[in-house]
Amino acid sequence: MNNSTMTIGILKSISFKLTTKLASHPLFNQYFQNINDFISITGFESNELFNLLEQPEQKIFDHFVVVGDSLYEKYQPPFVDVVKIVDFAASEINKAVRKQKLKATADMVNKQAEVIKNAIAKAYFYRSLDNVRLLASQSPENPNSPLTLHLHWLEEIVAYLTKKTKVLPETNHLECHFAEWLKKMEFELLLQSTGEDKDAQHARIYLSHRKIHQEFTYILTFVHNSDYELAFSHWSLLYQAVLELRQNIQNLQLLYKNHEERYFFEYVDEKSDIDEQLYYFLSIRLAKWALSGKNTENIDQLNLKILECLSDAKLDGVLFTSDNEIRVLLQNPDNSEDIDIPHFLEEKLHAFLFKLAKESGMKSRAIAINLNALNNYPKQKISMLRQLSFYKTKHNFELITQQKVELLYQSAIEAESVAAFASKALDDRTLEVFFQPIIGVQKNDMVSLEALVRAPTNEGYLAAEAFLQYLVNEDKMMALDHFVIQRISQYTNQLEGIVDSVSINIYPTSFQHEEIINALISLSEELQRHTVSLVVEITEQLFMGDTSPVEYLAREHNIAFSLDDFGSGYSNLFQLIGLAEREVVKVLKIDGSLVRQIDKDDKVFEVIETITKIANTLSITPIVMEYVESEHILNKLQCLDAKMYFQGYFFDRPLPLDQLIKKYGSANRRDASLVEH
């Protein structure tokens, strides 16, 4: 027997033993049901492994690229586990051949094992490029968002690496679109929400972004050298850096959204102190009747068009959108004399937006002011800008002149006085809780009460609408909500026998505080002992955040929720459908700004009719019509085919509880109820 024949015999024996070894390996058993699975993936019997030693490297490489592709598609074991299995097999073969003193064969085994790992790495590398498509499918809808722009860059990488394009994507992290965004006001505005952590947040995002481009540069080198193990390893690092960058940006956006208006005006205040830059503040007021996703698309379109107009004019800017207003802070980065900003605002930006708004069924008016005009009023600057929301003008566009700035100042002083008064009343606990009846089919059928805050003054009582926004600006809504909950808990004995339920309004961010959650649970339990249900009124703004606390209260503590002011903002039907299906939202309240217009515009009637049909489809009944102020409005509403209750001055104004009891009697008849017990 010659040496070659003897070597083959030894290798056959080793291959048979390897079969047993592989079948008992824990990682092997984790991904393969039996040895037949292994055969179906690799394409040969384990006892034929020795044949690999006689194959050319390229043939082995090509074969195991196919094996790796099948392995990824069928089992998706982590590449590190694949390496362990290959290394284990190579080690077992090496142990055996070294005992037989076949050194040349041992060296060949090690070499072929590296070829096999590199081939499988190539398959994994190109398969993992598909993850970019998955990430892109989850990208924000805004095509100009920083995350979307960088995902487009990743897609360009995939196209280049898969040879679908010869255009090399940008490798320099200082030259890509995302780097440009890091210099924009939008990024600065998001950082405003981080307070003293601003520099650290900036550094985290900058370093994540730099790492992405560095890893891409490494990958290009490794692919060029056909070193797919390192290419795949660094692609994993690149992808992880993308996820980190994405998470950092989303954390910033979420943090900013929690107190969007406050951070926006803080940023405006900060920028207005920079003398070498030219800043203008623009308030675009929208008169609209909002409904479902269509209106959201209209507002999003307006926002995008504003930013596009600014970009075309080489201006930078940021937006803050509220229910019926878009506020814009825009900047001329170069303070260029070539750009007549007042002319741009009136003749280009607003003229275009006015037309676009009209096509979307909305009316718009814009008020603009040069922030330099407020330099003489440093303490009232932000208050004056807020007053633009209430500034009366007969024109579609008006640039506030220096002569009219004094009027803004006087309005701001009055507003600050109201804010200070309301804040002190809350601190001193001198606010009072009134109750407004929710009326059933019969005029005297009081089915529920809504608790409303009033501030006592020398002239009477100040309605909450006059000061709530100031408490929001000062982060005092949680304190106000807690005050109302405590005050209602003092009325539980009196409420028994009057109505089946009582409604209170809770500000969206208050649900983030455990103190409010526990207080609501305690109030609900106390009311239930007096046969009264608690109904918590929420607004669509809650949909922008975490709804899990609301769902928890509904599911675990049987607290009913009413969606207030529906139709006033950007109604999210998908969220509403989900909450209705989970029986969280049980009552819908139509915004009073719609109801008051129902006898003046047939289109408003059609909008309200559509809302009632949506509510009926979702089994949300009853519907409460707010601001019913005349018999004519009531008669118009009663033409709708829906179960409705009514609330408004036509029936009664908010009153102290003892006055309501005197008026309606301590044994109010209850033929109907707002929510089922």
TrEMBL record:
PROSITE patterns: EAL. Signal peptide: none annotated. Residues 415-668 form the EAL domain. GO terms for molecular function: cyclic-guanylate-specific phosphodiesterase activity. SMART domains: EAL. It comes from the Bacteria. Pfam families: EAL. This is EAL domain-containing protein. It comes from Candidatus Thiodiazotropha endoloripes.
